[in-house]
Amino acid sequence: MIDQSYDQIFTAFEEIVNNFKRTNQYFDILYDSFSELFIEKSPFSEDISVNVKTSGIVARTFDGTWKEIALDNFSKLDSVTDKLPRVINKGEEIAEFEGWKLNKEIKPKINPKEITIEEKLNKIRYISNFIQNYDKRIVLCKTEYRETEITRIFVNNEGCQLRQVIPRTRFFIFPIVKEGMKIDFDHFLTDGIMGFEIFDDLTDEKLQQIADTSLEMLKAKKPPSGRFPVIVDPSMAGIIAHESFGHGLEADQVLRGRSYLKDKLNKNVASDICVICDTPSTENVLGFYFFDDEGIRAGKNILVENGILKNFIYDRRSASVLNATPQGNGRRESYAHVVHPRMSNTYFEPGDYDLEEMISDIKEGVMVSHSYFGMEDPLGLGMQCMSKKGYLIESGEKTQLLRGIALTGHVLEVLQNIDAISNHPTYLKGGTCGKGHADGVPVSDGGSYLRIKEVLISPG
Fold first, then answer.
1. Residue 27: how many CA atoms within 13 Å on its side-chain side?
2. CA dist 106 to 27, 356, 378, 407, Å?
3. What distance in Å separates the CA atoms of residue 164 and residue 103, rounded to the nearest whole number?
4. Which terminus has fewer CB within 10 Å in the chain: N or C?
5. Is the pLDDT of residue 1 over 90?
């Protein structure tokens, strides 16, 4: 653990940075601090995991490849200048950006650090017991609460002096229901850049609604199989934008030749009504931050504009190779992990259609709701997205509730078959994204309602 004030860290970092001249080589140094509380409750157990604080430092330079050193002790800071190489004439291999300064600490409305674990447990117990006792058909209610605080302090030899402190909180509710031999569930998630105020909107009335959505699943029917017109809700739009499409845009995959999109820049990849963005500066959602782990200011990356692929998702190195402008997507899970180009908040922008109009035009089809799972295939072009539920559409009206639905097909075919996007405000749902099976970072994804004129569906 590194226990220093941020002023002391800035001063120490500046002294080290001065040893590396920008015209010769790029150099940066990052302080990372992470704390977390996780509570998982079911009728049978209460599990609590506490990480009061894990902190460390990582410094790196580029001499044709990245050279890094990670430290977990401030007293070892002098070893950075001893162990990282000094070179000349390598400065232009990493594109240079204007240095900037920032010192931002987001303070939640209710600071979780001022709430005892017992108070948090009592709140979670109340919610769990309320739903568990709401209806005898609710046989189990599982809840998960997670609060984190991440501090990043970044200095480089371009003049960046940056600090951000960001609290994130998430809360899941899984009411599992049973009637006869039928067992099912729905789920509820709320998250964002916030503190313990996450519970403010969870009134008894809201908890009843959450319980009812699971109980309704007992009436759900098996969905049809085949190719149908489909409307997907914002959560499923987010799965398509992130899992099915977004991973293929990560520029390291492009440079390795492991993306089906590597030759698609400035070409048509979606219908001309589609605008897809990745915007780390989107406020109040889980994937928000002020700057990435390479000191790049969080911006707005327009990935697809009117159906045309405009940008990949870059870190500093891939942007330098591809002569592009990064928008703040160089991210690492912690000081002990390397930087990769990563998504932040990925979404479809709203369109011009009224949702009821989108439904009324369908004679026979399906609405897909409540995304549950998605698989990435950045090399093979395939997609499979799972929803928890949906609705049959018959003669322009939403009718029978359906249980889990899978959407399967080729990503670009699905994107090019989008013929309507609703005018609802963009909705973003939070989660954690891994690079493969590791390197988890907080993200959000979403959009508005999309209508796909034909896609393969099956029970999921």
1. 23
2. 28, 39, 35, 39
3. 6
4. N
5. no
Predicted confidence (pLDDT) at residue 127 exceeds the cutoff of 80: yes
pTM, entire model:
0.96
Q: Are 233 and 385 in contact (CB under 8 A)?
A: no
Q: Taking the C-alpha atoms of 53, 54, 57 and 62 in order, what is their torsion angle to the nearest 10 degrees?
A: -130
Q: How many residues does the chain have?
A: 460
The CATH fold of domain 6-219: PmbA/TldD fold (3.30.2290)
Q: Which residue has the tokens 């690492």?
A: 332
Instruction: Give the DSSP letter of residue 251.
Output: H
**What average pLDDT does the segment 393-411 reach?**
96
Q: Would you place residue 347 in the very low, low, confident or very high pLDDT band (cuts 50, 70, 90)?
A: very high
Q: Tokens standing for 380?
A: 């093979």
Span(s) in the chain for CATH 3.30.2290.10: 6-219
Q: What is the torsional sign of CA 302, 303, 307, 308?
A: positive
Euclidean distance between CA atoms 112 and 149, whole angstroms: 10
DSSP 3-state of 204: helix
